Amino acid sequence: MLNKTLVKRIIIIFALILTGIIVYFNFAALMPVLLALLTAMIFEPFVKFLMRKWKLKKRWIPVSTVFVLFLIVSSLLLYVMLTYLIESLIDWSRQIPTYVNEIEQFVDELIVAFEQFIAQFPQADQIVQALDNLADNVLSTILSWSTDFVAYLYEFIMSVPNMLIVGLVYLITLFLFSLDLPKLMNNFFNIFKKETSDKLRYVFQRMGKVFVGWWKAQFIMSLGIFVLCYLSLLYIAPGPALIVSFLVWLVDIIPLYVGPALILVPWGLVMMIIGDMTMGIQLNVLAIILLIIRRIVEPKVLGDSIGLHALPTILSMYFGFVFFGVLGLILGPFVYMAFKSAKESGLFDIQWNEKEKRDEPQ
């Protein structure tokens, strides 16, 4: 009996390791499906709430409601961001001739002043030659950067159809997962014996509470970011302070690592390009400060909300980043909590000696 149990456990461990290796090396291809499953699990409490509220037994109405709300909020957020960015670029493009003339006039004046200054030195020709070489190197570097930028822009444009297909697959998979999530979970639990199934149910129930705690932490931190951003923008740009702070809040509550920088950095760069260097620098500094504050506060708030100490939280986020990149910063604490919950449920308990004693003849 001991040998059969040992072989079975070795096979299970080997299958889990093999599955982990396959997921790791094909993570990019599996990401839409895994992200859809994760989103469906996050939305499940809302679906159950609507089922209880409306006293429904079938899931398709609550699932459709949550799915449509998710589409509406995502579409509105994307529309506002793209509209603001496009309007800013259009306004900037209209000012390009003025900027070109101002830059050309500035460069001409600078050249004249430099020639008058250089003429006072006995080795003016050598200095001018060295500066010409330096200018050629700078121009070639700028040309190389421009070529790389155009190549990246071309690759991004060519990848748009693939992004649309991946997004469509994600949305369809999300809806189907949400519709059949309880059935899928029951089928998964039924694979195992009742004792193991009960332990796995405990793990998933605990992870459900972790999901709720994680969203609670995100909401608390995003409110703090909203207040800080709004108070800062009242000084930097009072006009759009409220609407921009609201956009920052929406982006920050979504699990994106960059958070406020996704709104403030492009805005700051546009301001710097159109000539308002002070405002541009202030916006970029604000984005950096908000990002640093969030990264410092996040382990503590997140740990308290999901039941972890700050040190395991920050370590799980770090190792998640090392193995899975930016997305690992989000998945790291969940993976750690999953192993911790599995250990608490006794899923990893191996009592071969006790089994052997029970199997021995009395």
From TrEMBL:
Coiled coil: none annotated. GO terms for biological process: transmembrane transport. It is a multi-pass membrane protein. The chain crosses the membrane at residues 7-27, 63-86, 156-177, 242-265, 277-297, 317-339. Pfam families: AI-2E_transport. One of its GO terms (cellular component) is membrane. Keywords: Membrane, Transmembrane, Transmembrane helix. It comes from the Bacteria. Belongs to the autoinducer-2 exporter (AI-2E) (TC 2.A.86) family. NCBIfam families: spore_ytvI (TIGR02872). This is Sporulation integral membrane protein YtvI. It comes from Natribacillus halophilus.
